[in-house]
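Input record (one chain):
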Amino acid sequence: MTDIYLEISKLSGKFRTMAYGLSNDKHEVNDAVQELMIYFLQMNPETLKAIYDKDGIDGVTRYGAVALRRALTSPRSNYYYKYKKYYTNLIGVYMNKTNIAQNNFHKSIYNLPLIEEQDVQWEKLEKIDEALESFTWYDRKIFELYYSEGNTLDSLAKKTGISRNSLFTTIDKVRVQLKEMLND
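The corresponding structure, as predicted from the sequence alone:
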């Protein structure tokens, strides 16, 4: 398996070139390729070995190309949850007229303004925390696990042993009730 992983590591430049066909953002490409390498390390070793035995490094390259395309285009991919979702929220909060006029806003944590923003977001979070106190411990804990730790429903279902549908129902119920309570 180590030989396969070494061969895959040599493909990072090729994957980077493929990713530039889907995105022009250097940071996004680098993040997506890094996430792909982590994906290869975490995937089932028997599956990876079967792909390598059947088609060699070309098969692994084709498999990686599909996984990379899905990472950059699917809103359900791990890449989306780790990177795009986060930066999309940053754009809405930190985009200003100067950045738009100069067309120099790039999705990066380093673009955060140095001035302190009002604590409006913290006030909202505090209101949500106060409102959550009125819920049962189960509803509150499931809601906190889902939102505070950034879990997906599938990963939360694996961690807790609770069915995905039950988790969805609970989280959706709490979300609807919170909106009603906070009038948002």
